[in-house]
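Running this now, will post back.
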Amino acid sequence: MQNQRLLYHAVAFLVVVIWGSTFVFTKLLLLGGLSPAQIFVLRFFIAYILLLVFCLWRGIRWMADSWKDELLMLGLGISGGSLYFLAENRAMTYTTTTNTSLIVCLCPLFASVLIGLFYKSQRLNRTQAVGTLMAAAGVVVVVMNGHFVLHLSPVGDGLAFVACLCWAVYSLLMIPANARYDTIFVTRKIFFYGLLSMVPYFVLYPGTNIHLLISQPPLLWNLLFLGCVASMLCFLTWNWVMNKLGAVTVTNYVYFNPVTTILFAWLILSEPITVYFILGTMLILVGMYLSNKHRNK
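Update: finished.
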């Protein structure tokens, strides 16, 4: 049992590592001429088609047991898909990347509070609360990187908070979804409703710029990584491990997002590692240990 839990934690960490790397591939696609909304739709479309083919082959159900459960899937597609990505990407057009990253990566705090309001069994005790706050402080140190100055932007920061709350709601809704349905079915529904809820956006802002992918093969490979690995495989494994470890425990791994992002920036873009990164990472590691210490028993 202990070895299984270690495996689940390792999987959660691996997913966050992959998600931390996506900024490089997304940035290349943005520089290639695609918009954030186009990138989101194309990567979710690839993931959905792959899962759809698998579900057709395995004969996995199409609809939920009730219209209420179908609305639950819609909520997951919006909170973990379209609204989250639109809010996060739009936030960076109004405020700094630092502000957006800092606010969004604090979503485990909001998720812990929100989930605790609905599920007494997942409420944090004192040690876990201290660990969560310590990990959050580590995120602040890593993201700010010694420059403790925030350039406030009501619109941009507000959108970043919307994205943060969206992921907290997504984590909350995954609890009943995982309890009633198979992970593959839930994940396929998330992709479907994430895409469906983007239709109004593309009515206002049409165009996908697919011709750019055809004329620039490296962009296509970047998109395939985002669709096949960062979307399909990572969402599947994230939802699966959330079912095994619990929503609060798994969501806490989001604290590692800025750490893995900076590591990839160091490896690929040769950006320097600072003492603030090391200090913040240590705070996150200790905080994660404390927040999971009693939950694992």
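The mean pLDDT is 84. More later if anyone needs it.
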